[in-house]
Every structure is written in structure tokens, then in C-alpha cells.
Amino acid sequence: MKKALLILSILFLTVSYGQEIKQIPQINVNGEGKVKVVPDQATILATIETKGNNAKDVKKDNDQKMEAVLRFIKKMNLDPADYKTQRVSLNPQYDYEKKKHSYNATQTVEILLKDLSKYDELMDGLVDQGINRIDNVTFQSSKLAQYQSEARKLAMKEAKLKAEDYVSVLGQKVGRAMTISDNSQTYYPQPVYMAMKSMEMSDTKAPRETLAVGEINITANVSVSFILE
Fold first, then answer.
1. A single Pfam family, by name (predicted)?
2. Could you tell me the pTM of the whole model?
3. CA-CA distance, 6 to 13, in Å (whole number)?
């Protein structure tokens, strides 16, 4: 008897709880917003790598080359806040065949170039002054936050438009948003080096055009749950 009463009590509570829960009509949709931007600046990681048998000489040679690089960058009239050295290292290396040690010194300079018209001049000068490794070039926009905001707004507009399309045939309306999940992605193009056309050089030299920077694709993706009215 007690067991039967317990079961009836549980059933009563379950039914009561179920009656309290109201089903809220809603629709779940995805939206995407895209903004394409032409980069207006670039971050360059350039390295001097020096090898030799004497650690002191290798380090000294590497330092002298980096000093020349920094002097050249200064002559390019870049803001001192836009370049800095990093990742300085001096490592021994052992040649098992020759059974002798050698040394490898590296220094990297990071440069924020805000005027892409100076790109070719800067890169040529870096190599002339001793840079023998370009580790990375990333093209960016100085107005990235503004374009990301535009992409998010476009994504939300597309999500709402989708929801309205779906419910328009049902005689319902799209109400307020219940949940929003956002996942934005930004693609930074790598440099594309254009093939240099062979030409006979006369007294007048043609300007170099070795780089096509491409576009930055700023994409915002959202998942939205709307209440149906």
C-alpha cells in the first residue's frame, strides 16, 4: 500500500511539474557576415643568421649586421615604436663527421610597416644590410575593429532575415532573440610575389612591383534563437 502511494505521489508531482513548464515557440538560424578589406599595413619578421667556428666572432658579426639594419630602418623614417628586436640566440652546433663545434647566432627584428608603398624599398634595404631570412609577413588593416563590427552586424541581419523567411508562410512573427552564439574569423593574406617580367633596362629604370597583397576576409558567424510570436 505504501509503495502504491509513493508511485502515485511521484506521478502527481511529475504531472504538476510538466504543467508548469511552458513550451516557448522558437526558431534557430545561422547567419554570416563578410567584409573584404584591402590591407593598409604589414608586420614583418626578419632575421639575421650568422654561422662560424668562434662564438665571440659569430656574435660580434651578428650584432654589427643588426646595428646596420636598425640604422637603415631609422633612415626609412619609421616610428621607433613600430620596430623592435627579439629572439636573440647563440647556439653551439656539433658536426659529428668533422668532429668539431660551430656556432649559430640569430637576431630577429619585428617591423610594423604602416605605409605599404615603402614595402619594396624596405625589403631590399633589409637584405642589403644583412637580413638573410624573412620569417613572416602578415598584412593587416588599421581599422580591423571597425570592420569586425560591420561583419557582426551583417551576420545578425542575415540571421533575422532567414528567420523571417521561414515563418512568413506560417502567419507568425519573429520576436526577440533568446540566445546568440558568435564565432568570428579573420584571414590575413600572406604576400604573393609576382613574377618579374624580363625587360631590357634602358637609362630609365621601371618601378618595381613585386607584391600583390590580396584582401583580408573578415567573417562573422552567428547562431541565433528567436522567439516566435
1. SIMPL
2. 0.70
3. 11
